[in-house]
Structure formats: structure tokens, C-alpha cells
Sequence to fold (90 residues):
Amino acid sequence: MPSLSPKQIEEVNELIEQVEKSIKPKCEIGAQSKVILTGLLSANKVKKKAKYIPCKREYSDTVVNYFVNEKGVAKSKFHANGRDFIFILS
Fold:
């Protein structure tokens, strides 16, 4: 994980709080753009609904890894590094 400045840490913590409100049991988390994820979900006939949370590209991996490693949330197979939205499939 890259070293972050105090301002960046504050921004990441705010983003984590925002995501934490949307996390439910048996959901998946990842990062992807809206257009690509919509296409992937329909092509793979996934019935789950996606909730999008906007974030800076440099923070998406940090936030997703936090929830996967610390909170035990499943990482989605549609996850991609450095995207502008964090999504939660539920």
C-alpha cells in the first residue's frame, strides 16, 4: 500500500465510512466504471443489483482491499484496479 498524506488518509476514511453504510452480508465489493460493469453484469446474466460510490482512482484499490482483508467482504470477479467507482453487488 502506498504511503498517504494526512489529507489523503482523511479522504480515504470518509470513503470507507460511506461504503460501510452500504455493506450487507453476502455482498461483493470491487472497483469498475459504471458502463463497463453494467455490460459485464448483463453479459454474465448476473441478477444482483449494483450500488455505485464515486471515488478517486488512486483510492479505489485501497478501499476495496481494506474491506476484503479487514472486514472479510468477498471481492467481485468484475473488480479492476484504479477505477473511478466502487461498486457493491447485493
